[in-house]
Design brief:
Helices cover 51% and strands 0% of the residues. By secondary structure, it is mainly α. The chain has a single domain, classed as Ribosomal protein S18 (30s Ribosomal Protein S18), CATH 4.10.640.10.
Length: 82
């Protein structure tokens, strides 16, 4: 048996939409992600040198993939810490 308050709570949860984060790469007009651009790559990493999730930085799937590849290359070249 569901009560009225449970139904209302479920209905309100369906109506709420998550806030879309702005795409930082589009705002900064970054056309190409280069592994040598350490300042750009550090913006998408946490203080513990881990990549931030897409939902945290607002990137598209392809942009997140490009950043991940560039970070891996930069780590291999010892430009970024592991």
């Amino acid at each position: 048996m569901t009560s009225k308050s449970n139904k209302l709570r479920a209905k309100k949860a369906l109506l709420r939409k998550p806030k879309k984060r702005p795409n930082m790469m589009v705002q900064e007009k970054v056309g190409f992600v280069d592994y040598k651009d350490v300042n750009l790559l550090q913006r998408y990493m946490s203080d513990r040198s881990k990549l931030r999730a897409r939902r945290m930085n607002g990137n598209s799937v392809q942009q997140q993939r490009d950043i991940a590849t560039a970070v891996k290359n930069a780590r291999e070249m010892a430009l970024l810490p592991y």
